[in-house]
Amino acid sequence: MAVRDLKIRWWIPLVAVAAAWLLALSGNCAAQSIGFPNAAVRDSLSKFSSDSIEHLVCLDGRAIGDTVYFDAMRIPEQQASAHGVTVQGTHTGCGSALAVWHNHPKQAGETAEMGLYFSSSDQNTFLRYEEALFAIVGVDGAMCLWTRRQVHAGWLLNLTPLPPIEKQCWQTH
Ligand SMILES: [Zn+2]
């Protein structure tokens, strides 16, 4: 889950078009809101999202209508490398988790919004090695969610990095 393409900004004008595309493609699978019945989960994610190193968290929960509730979390075995954090053994690191969450450490002089994207390696790792329905990136108290279908659509459209999707980003603190 590399953060190397953080400084790539050429796609910003494409965000609106891409979001419209992906929303159209996502049908009613999109999550319009998220809930944290267990405040400790929300607080942990909020803390991790502001850290200077990358964390990967498996989130368990349930989707009811267009709301996704995350009530438990697991930290998989992971290893750090020059390219970021990967799950040990890579295959299905989060198993049957509902979502795979990771943070993009905020770089000096950048806003949280600048780190809220799903990089090409994020997309590749998620599609290839994870089974979860949702992918989430957190940056400094903010988080954005993509559905598996949206990640797949973005990959097919070469939207790398994948921009945030309207109404699928929230503040956690
Ligand atoms: Zn990433």
What is the domain total for the residues? 1
Q: What small-molecule ligands were found?
A: zinc ion
Secondary structure category: alpha+beta
**Neighbour order of strands in the largest sheet:** 1-3-2-6-7-8-9
Uncertain ranges: 1-8
Order of helices and strands: HEHEEEEEHEEHE
What is the class in the CATH system? Alpha Beta
Strand coverage percent: 25-35%
Rg is: 15 Å
CATH topology: Cytidine Deaminase, domain 2
Q: Roughly how much helix do the residues carry, as a percent range?
A: 10-25%
Shape: globular
Number of strands: 9
Biggest beta sheet summary:
7 strands, mixed
Span between termini? 24 Å
**Average pLDDT, all residues:** 82
Number of helices: 4
Using the 3D structure, state the CATH architecture.
Answer: 3-Layer(aba) Sandwich
SSE arrangement:
Layout: H1 15-26, E1 33-35, H2 39-49, E2 56-64, E3 67-74, E4 78-81, E5 84-87, E6 99-103, H3 120-129, E7 134-139, E8 142-147, H4 148-156, E9 169-171
Parallel strand pairs: 1-3, 6-7
Antiparallel strand pairs: 2-3, 2-6, 4-5, 7-8, 8-9
Describe it for me?
This protein is α+β, with helices and mostly antiparallel strands and 173 residues long. It has a single domain (3-171), classed as Cytidine Deaminase, domain 2 (3-Layer(aba) Sandwich), CATH 3.40.140. It is built from 4 helices and 9 strands. The chain has helices spanning 15-26, 39-49, 120-129, 148-156; strands at residues 33-35, 56-64, 67-74, 78-81, 84-87, 99-103, 134-139, 142-147, 169-171. The strands form 2 sheets. The chain has a 7-stranded mixed beta sheet with strand order 1-3-2-6-7-8-9. Helix 1 (15-26) packs across helix 4 (148-156). The radius of gyration is 15 Å and the shape is globular. It starts with 14 loop residues before the first helix and ends with a strand. Mean pLDDT is 82; it is low at 1-8. Bound molecules: zinc ion. Zinc ion (ZN) binds at residues 1, 3, 102, 104, 119, 122, 137.
